[in-house]
Write a structure and sequence with these properties.
127 residues, 5 helices, 80% helix
């Protein structure tokens, strides 16, 4: 009976430590997104960038936010590699860069290629 209580107490202590550690980085993505949005709106208000292209920069910033969040969670929290955030970050930043570089015709092809790679990777891992 004492072993069960000790195990349960240890599990609760571990869960609390994980929750506290997990919450330390919980607001990183939201904070980075708001930071990027605020900076871009400020730059657009100051006519440093045009209102017609601020969203292209926002896509790059959003992608960067996903990549930074993924890196912080991996290196700081030692969480498992977050493939979904990494792929989302690469896709969003890639689309923004494609629009800024004037090659907006390529981004659908990039998404198709990334989708195929993820699909094939998922099928290979199952076998």
């Amino acid at each position: 009976m004492n072993e069960q209580r000790t195990t349960a107490t240890n599990d609760m202590t571990t869960d609390r430590r994980y929750e506290r550690h997990h919450h330390r980085t919980g607001g990183i993505l939201g904070g980075l997104i708001l930071l990027a949005l605020g900076i871009l709106l400020f730059l657009a208000n100051q006519s440093i960038i045009g209102w017609d292209i601020w969203w292209q920069y926002f896509l790059v910033g959003l992608g960067a936010a996903f990549l930074i969040d993924c890196a912080v969670r991996y290196f700081w929290n030692h969480q498992s590699f977050m493939q979904g955030r990494l792929i989302a970050g690469i896709i969003l930043a890639g689309i923004g860069i494609a629009f800024l570089a004037g090659i907006s015709m390529l981004w659908p092809i990039i998404i198709i290629i990334v989708g195929l790679v993820v699909l094939i990777g998922g099928l290979v891992r199952r076998h």
